[in-house]
What does this fold into?
Amino acid sequence: MKFSTVLSPHLQPVNSVDRVMLKVLLALIPGIAAMAWFFGIGIWINIAIATVTAALAEAFILKLRGRPVIATLKDLSAMVTAVLLAISLPVIAPWWITVVGSLFAIVIAKHLYGGLGYNPFNPAMAGYVLLLVSFPLPMTAWPPPVEIATVHLSMADVARLIFLEQRPDAISFDALTRATPLDSLKTQLGLNQTVSAIRDGEVFGLFSGKGWEWVALAYLVGGLWLLWQKVIAWQIPAGLLLGLGLLASLGFSIDSEHYASPLFHLSAGATLLGAFFIATDPVTAAATACGRIIYGLLIGALIYLIRIWGGYPDAVAFSVLLANLCAPALDYVTRPRVFGHRA
Amino acid sequence: MLKSWSFHGGLRLPGHKHLSAQAPIIDAGVPSQLIYPLQLRPGVHLHATVNLSDRVVRGQIIADAEHALATPIHAASSGTVHAIENRLIPHPSGLADECIIIATDGLDEALPAAHPVDFRHEQPGVIRHLIRQAGIVGLGGAAFPTAIKLNPGPKRQVDTLLLNGAECEPYITCDNSLMQAEPNAVIEGALILMHALQVERGIIAIEEPMTEAFARLSEALEQHRNLRLSIVRIPALYPTGGEKQLIKVVTGKETPSGGIPADVGIICQNVGTAAAVYQAVSRGLPLTERIITVTGQGVNKQQNMRVRIGTPISELIGQAGGYSHDVKRLIMGGPMMGFALPEDDIPVVKATNCILAASDNEIVGAKEARPCIRCGDCAKACPVNLLPQQLYWHSRADNLDKCKEFSLFDCIECGCCEVVCPSHIPLVQYYRAAKSKILVKAKESEKSAIAKRRHDAHLDRKAREQAEKAERARQKKAALAKVKAANAAQERTE
Ligand code: SF4
Ligand code: SF4
It folds into this structure.
């Protein structure tokens, strides 16, 4: 009897990119649900706009580059990029913000560099930073969490806000939005207030901001699940949280009236989303075990430094992009000792 | 109990061993034809010591060579030499090469066994000679001549014999069943090997799940009351059965890159080899049979069989109830490092430990590779602590110097990286290709170096010749001038 021959190994692969990406999406669900609960259903609209834009853009580019369209879309990487971008945007951002960000992420940050696996910068964060720099106003217009909201928007109101940029009658822009905790901390520290006085403000909660802290916790849950599923490397979130936590502890122990507590920094803004979902993007992160720890530490430290001294209240996106630049060098200097070689 | 170390990476693979592990060993008997490839390994060819139509009996040497790495082949049953011709041989390249084909006569006559030797009273050199003459090679798959391995030379201080009973590849259970069926042969063989090496320490390493084999071996060891030999149980982790990995796990020592185990004082042998050594030395029987696992969902009966070396695989499949309807691939060895065979008329050789007839859902089909996402799973799984994704980038880009820099040649082609890769990249194929390119290039540059040396020598010689010629011409001219001058002077004086 005749058989076809192929080379070893013959065993079936135990994992696939599709499955990895699907798990990342699943792990985002608790965080997204918490966002929707505290900040309204706008986040689902953002996600819908971003995914459709990203999928169409990716399909178009793949066609242009003569690559398989369906098989590539099936790997869900464009969807992950789209969702990560969408959940970073203010939930009432006008639709074109989301479209421009998604287009930039997929077309420029991903495919211009050669597509999945070749992009040096995290596409979602590249899109986010582009938007933040170009359209600072809509990019910082966050509604207050449900606990302290004075106006309650219906689904139709939110849709009109996003698609037509029309506020419901008799509601001012100021009533609609509220400074985020990181934002108000930064502005008021600038006005020479003390941290403890600032934290009496209505936007602050148990650890950081009302609503925000629970969203962060939900992302933490999803992130821990990813760790348990071995989808992400523990070194990156561990390094990031350690880097940020250490610097924050240092500042806090030196002058707790001018530097917020480590707990505040760890649960504020996009720290936990960034630690488990954004910094862990394997394509743009360091790849060696040791390199990943340093990479995480670097992002954590950068987040703190930019939050304290930078021009923007949060800093996850900038820090990740800066660390992306260092990833290849980190990989090179942290090459592991090969079995049987001397150290 | 010895402390156990660990190496980086490795995989816990589903064993699939229940298919064959507990079943009794079936005697495959004498096939109608026995086929013996004369190429033992690339560059080592035996020549037939029998002629067409000669009658041979079991135990008779039918091929041998002077080469240092050659070991003789013995007929595994009686019959006549039917042909000496090219047949497909069990080799990853699917080559045909010269084979002796014996048509058996069913009488199964054998040479009388050689006089048994009490190894305790023999010099190591004598034992090595007996082992070589019995045709014994490593039965774990590498088929390196055992006698050579037992002679590491005076520069290396060997103090330990390590018997490898860790069958880390999925499906394979031939060593497990051997240790259960013939524990005494394994122990005796170990003692002979220790004597041949003049070492005071012997360790038999088996995997934790092999409880039955452990019990049998322990009983046999107890009877010997030998305190220098011990049994250790190690975690079942692929590829612990790799020589260097096993040494690390059992002793904590790392064989240097490019070195051999003897560099760290250890000689590794397979348990099946030890049993064969016992048969050869203490019972006077050359190596003509071995135990082979015939398994996979592609055959109807999964079992271990005692097989005459040279038996065509098709015969074994017949005895295993034939192929099942969904057989897809025929593999010699395990699913991680074994190679697929183009057909089943190929014989089993000394190194064959497993015939895996795999069905569709046991093996990977055509792989649709996607871009590397740098997830690092491959690096986490690599038992050699390489960076497979870097090796992949560089081998794909034909960046051979970078491949060497990232220690490509330390790769043991175990396949761990490829199995865990979520992008389904055929990584090991890239490494194989890059390795052979580097070797070809090295050969070429060696050749061109030789050519250049020749060319330089040629130019040198030419230059020298020319210089000599010029010198001669000059001398001639000078002489002529002298003569002329002398003549002129003479003329003048005249
Ligand atoms: S496992 Fe595959 S996808 Fe992941 S880094 Fe290695 S080669 Fe790339
Ligand atoms: S095949 Fe080579 S690179 Fe891959 S895991 Fe095995 S030793 Fe490492």
Remarks:
- The CA atoms of residues 338 and 492 of chain B lie 99 Å apart.
- The first strand of chain B starts at residue 26 and ends at 27.
